[in-house]
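Protein modeling request. Please complete all fields; requests missing the sequence field cannot be processed.
Requester role: graduate student
Desired output: 3D structure, token encoding
Chains: 1
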Amino acid sequence: TLDDRATDALRILNEDFGIQPEQNLLAPVHFGLAVAQSISMTYANAYGRAGVEDRVCDLSLAAVDGAGAVAPIAPGVEAALFSISNGIPPSAGVNIVYDGADGQPTNLPASASPSTNQLDYGLDALLCLRSLAQGSDAVSGADLQGSDAELATAIAEGIAEVR
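Delivered output (163 residues):
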């Protein structure tokens, strides 16, 4: 049942990913505010020393319109970015954009993954971030290959440097 699946998902978060039971109440709020998504994206880029052109996991930052499509940022908002944003998206009109979304680059919460063709919050991109963080494919557990393996190693080395 749906309730059984939800209970099992919560168990996995608590037991396998170390989320404390006291955090469970705030988890939906944090997801809705894109806390984990934003930190995962920005940290992967920083620790892996990726440039903006690298678009790690097909993610980038941009202003979007009401439908989630990339749009120009209003000049007044752009001028005030430094004073009204903490630099972690989404804030001050800058959002996480899934460039690999089905159809066109789209605001992450409104995006559909190519693997599912469903509005799934860019699941493919989020699984990619998880894979890079753990150094293996988040779905199959297989070792990462090629540029993904290199980036996962760079991220791990970047983390080790600041410990």
